[in-house]
Amino acid sequence: MTTPSNLQDEVCPDCGVVLPQLSESGAAHRYVGASPSCWQLFSYLLNAGEPPVAPGQLNPLLLDAYCVQHHGTPSPQAVNSVAVHALALHGVLVAGVAPENALWIRQQALRDSADKGKHGRFYWLEPPELGKMLTVADIVNAPTPAARSEQLQAYVQSVWQAWSNRHGTTLAQWYAQYVA
Ligand SMILES: [Zn+2]
User: Fold this and answer.
1) Rounded to an integer, what distance in angstroms lies between the CA atom of residue 127 and that of residue 140?
2) DSSP symbols for the chain
3) How far is it, in rounded angstroms, from Cα 161 to Cα 165?
4) How far is the CA of 35 from the centre of ligand 1 (A)?
5) CA of 112 to the centre of ligand 1 (A)
6) Is the bond preceding 51 in cis, omega lying within 30 degrees of 0?
7) How far apart are the CA of 158 and the centre of ligand 1, in A?
8) d(CA 11, CA 3)
9) What angle is formed at CA 172 by the lines to CA 170 and CA 175, rounded to 5 degrees?
10) Is 145 exposed, middle or buried (0-12, 13-18, 19+ CB in 10 A)?
11) Which sequence spans correspond to the domains of the chain?
């Protein structure tokens, strides 16, 4: 884990990236645990396509990887956010669902037909240690759209590896019970 090099830098509590603090306080997300500067970098990348990223197989999983990595602190919304997005990663990277169908997995995970209410079916997963995963800055700082796409694929894989090492069995059970 790195420490800020000066007072204007801030550390994202969930991914450890060090970025300059925003001059205006950014609209941090309600239950995603990112620092405002990390969240802004991610939002530009996801919503504005800035900086541009070349097409890549796992590009549709950027949102899922980011939301799993930025787990926040235990609350019902954070528990569901991590679970749903981790199940999307499991579905594509383990169960062979097409990346374009990640939305279907997210919807299945929270659908109403399961035997438990959607607010009681998942529980808090202890996050992996910081420093085992790439960050969104690794994607943004790569020099070309193709290089950024390569980093994005590696980012998704690194988040999945770190989480599945700790929680792969639980996620497989949840997937079988609530998605498949
Ligand atoms: Zn972050």
Assistant:
1) 24
2) ----SSTTEEE-TTT--EEEPPSSPP---SSS---HHHHHHHHIIIII--S-----TTGGGHHHHHHHH---SSSHHHHHHHHHHHHHHHHHHTS---GGGHHHHHHHHT-TTSSS-TTTS--PPPPPPTTSS--HHHHHTSSSHHHHHHHHHHHHHHHHHHHHHHHHHHHHHHIIIII-
3) 6
4) 6
5) 31
6) yes
7) 14
8) 7
9) 110
10) middle
11) 52-179
Q: How many residues does the chain have?
A: 180
Phi and psi at residue 71, to the nearest 5°: -75, -20
Q: Whose structure tokens read 């609350």? A: 75
pTM (predicted TM-score):
0.91
Q: List, as ranges, residues with CB under 5 A of the ion ligand 1.
A: 12, 15, 34, 38
> Please, are residues 24 and 123 in contact by the beta-carbon 8 Å criterion?
no
Find out whether 92 and 61 touch, Cβ atoms under 8 Å. Answer: yes
pLDDT digits (tens, 9 = 90+) for 77-109: 999 999 999 999 999 999 999 999 999 999 999
pLDDT single digits (tens) 113-145 = 656 666 788 999 999 998 889 999 999 999 999
- Looking at the DSSP assignment, which residues form a beta bridge with residue 10? 19
